[in-house]
Amino acid sequence: MAGTWATAGLDLHVDARRSRRRASLEESLRLAIQQGRLAAGTRLPSSRTLAGDLELSRGTVAAAYDQLIAEGYLLARQGAGTQVADLADASSAQAQVPHMRGGTTPRLDLRPGVPDIGAFPVPMWLRWARKALNDAPTEAYGYGSRGGRNELRSLLVDYLGRTRGVLARPEQIIVTTGSTQSVSLLSAALASTGVTTVAMEDPCFGYHRDVARWGGQCVVPLPVDGHGAVTESLGTGALSGAGAAIVTPAHQYPTGVTLHPARRQALTAWARETGGLVIEDDYDGEFRYDRQPIGAVQGTAPEHVAYLGTTSKALGPGLRLGWAVLPHQLVEPVKNAKLYTDHSTNGITQLTMAECIASHGYDRQIRQSRQRYRRRRDALVAALEPLAPCLGRPLVTGVPAGLQALVRLPDDGPSDDEVVELAAAEGLALEGLGRHWHSPGPHPQGLIVGFCRPSERTYPAAVALLTRVLRRALPAARA
Prior knowledge:
single chain; Aspartate Aminotransferase, domain 2; eight-stranded mixed β-sheet; 15% strand
């Protein structure tokens, strides 16, 4: 044994063999954290100090620390040294992640739907919140309006018009807790007006499909191809009974394509001719990396399109803040649905967001995130490019946009479920395309890679592990 470090009754034992020293130290620290013997927030000795205690080289200890930081077990903060990370939410997260070897949670996570929440602008948010609280009228601490704070809705009119081409007045905006609640409220409001069938892209965000059904809608599939939703099929066949269509025109989820201009026109023409409603989910429309973001469909037919937006991708889903810009005839039905759901959205958060927009902080945050996420997507494409011959085409499909990319798998296997399981065994959480199809059957296989979720520190390791998993999984890569 090379050495033992003891603190608060904790012993770390390190194998004396030179080839095992670093790995042994990593394993000992990792196990102590997993078992709770090293509690969250515990400050570890400096690499120099621990190296002296264990009679190891400082480089060995520093390398072990770096590996555990990359895996999420440790945190390195300026002025605070190296500390044990908080893994308290691991048990609740376990139900949502693929099965991991030995029952452990994933070391690395490339599932979609979440930005790099470690980049949340905490100091700026505190400043905006302080100003909002200082200026807030007394009634802001009451239950609030069903539609939301006028301060935020007025600013959203300008912001959405300037950045997304949305046409609206403040009274047409309902502030919600995010796109999911917006879909839920619209589903219930439409059902109350007699519309009980809605078309949704196939594939689509499977959770929103369930939300629409919960809101009283019968959901019928709207096919998607390389040009986006096949909107010219609306009003025909199985789609003839649909009174609304939920689409993601700027960046189709999960295929990543953009709705073709002719199909945008077909979509609004269908709505005008039939009285149908287009529900435009613009969940990440600000994030386009090769050109200016494409404007919202809503701007071309504002009385036939309900536009949905959210702060979840630009700031973080924990804020629980979004908005629905509605045709005039739907404002009261959606307000009523809001009243009987949660009455109103957090007023202080709305006022803080209003300060964020008014100070142009939201614009700055999106610009900075756009630059960072573009680099991440470029790194993902570059890392997977050598595997392209296995498919005879690029693995990453769709336009350069958003917070996730679809990685296609070959038609002759493996399935996305098999790759997800293989990755899980290596400690990497992935999400397959399969659950987003409306019904089981022979569908194209793929992985939806969330390249924004990991921290800046852990992202390279996550991409490297994804590449290794795919090399093992793809038959041509093994040959």
